[in-house]
Amino acid sequence: MDITGIGSVLDFGGKLIDRLWPDPAQRDAAKLELFRAQQAGEFKEMDQAFELAKSQIGVNNTEASSVSFWVSGARPACIWVGAAGLAYAAILDPLLRFTAAVGFGYSGLFPVIDTTITTQVLLGLLGLGYMRSQEKKAGVA
Prior knowledge:
- By secondary structure, this protein is mainly α.
- It is built from five helices and no strands.
- The chain has helices at 6-20, 24-65, 69-72, 74-104, 116-138.
């Protein structure tokens, strides 16, 4: 899939070459030059994407090795928020409802907090952590 539009330009260039050079040898030489130019452009784009990915990995490593809580704590914060939502939904909320009903005779309504998103994030992170553990165990790391 050509998202840059270069492929369609090169297709047009190939058709233009077919019309401008009637001699098959000259036409093939011109198409070869066009193909070389296409490859050079694609390799340049791939190299730029690779360099961008390498620089992002460097940023990730710098952030992860930082001693500052506010820099290196972003990823763990997602886990903390998910764990807090799960702890509230699974432990704290039922315990408080039980205490209010049994200990104080409260029979009113309790507020409901939707923990769907926090649970999804937590389970996704735990799944990725498990996958990484399996990669390390298999020696893929």
